[in-house]
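HOLO CASE FILE
Compound: cobalt (II) ion
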Amino acid sequence: MGNIIIKNSEQIAGIRASSRLAASTLEYIAEFVRPGVSTGFLDQKIEEYILEHGAVPATKGYNGFPKSSCISPNEIVCHGIPSEKTILKEGDIINIDVTTILNGYYGDTSRMFAIGEISERARRLMETTKHCLDLAIEQVKPGNQFGNIGFVISRYARAKGYSVVYEFCGHGVGLNFHEEPQVDHTSRRNTGPVMQPGMTFTIEPMINEGRPGTRIDKADGWTARTVDNRLSAQFEHTVLVTPTGVEVLTDVRNEYPIS
Ligand code: MF3
Ligand code: CO
Ligand code: CO
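Model generated. Tokens follow.
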């Protein structure tokens, strides 16, 4: 138990700018995401875009992670390593996760992409996962407790017949890549620290079709797959607690009103 950093207005402005760059990187990469393309190629384009905008990719060299993004197809839950050998094919679903460092400030976001035509099953999993994130964002306001984030995520996901990954969590973010608190996606109602204006953190639910457990690839030490090789989906935003509610710092699509 350490402490949750309350950011001042200068820091918030910096984290907002970095978050917007991370989000616009995902917008930029969308046009390249199609069948036949390798995840290694997508990572190269992501790296170029981030560097051109005066930032650096936070994942490159982070605890030895080799690439500028995490790209996680199908049964990969998170931390997929982009590779020229991983070629996207029709029917795949992938998560692309981008974290930028701009002027020392961190922004972290991810979303799913469909490769060509996908199954109804895969589409329903992605839509449910996005809705889990939206429900969680509604919980962000001063005075509410962090546990209510995981509570609404797990209640909704389980009602749809899915399971929630408990081995990876959201996190405070902004001055560092991973700050306190740990933002659980399976927590209990009215538990955990109290949200206060100036807190910035991610919410990044990973929702599985089958069992919730994950295992890390022994060969690369990073790739986390579902234990049953069934599909997993994830969406992630960086959010700010405002005096009246929430600002979704990585929202460049204008999906969320500022409250
Ligand atoms: N961006 C991921 C997150 O949402 C973290 C990736 S760490 C890495 O927390 F080392 F795998 F890149
Ligand atoms: Co994150
Ligand atoms: Co991320």
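CASE NOTES: The chain has one domain: 9-248. Helices lie at 9-29, 39-52, 120-138, 147-159.
CLOSED: yes
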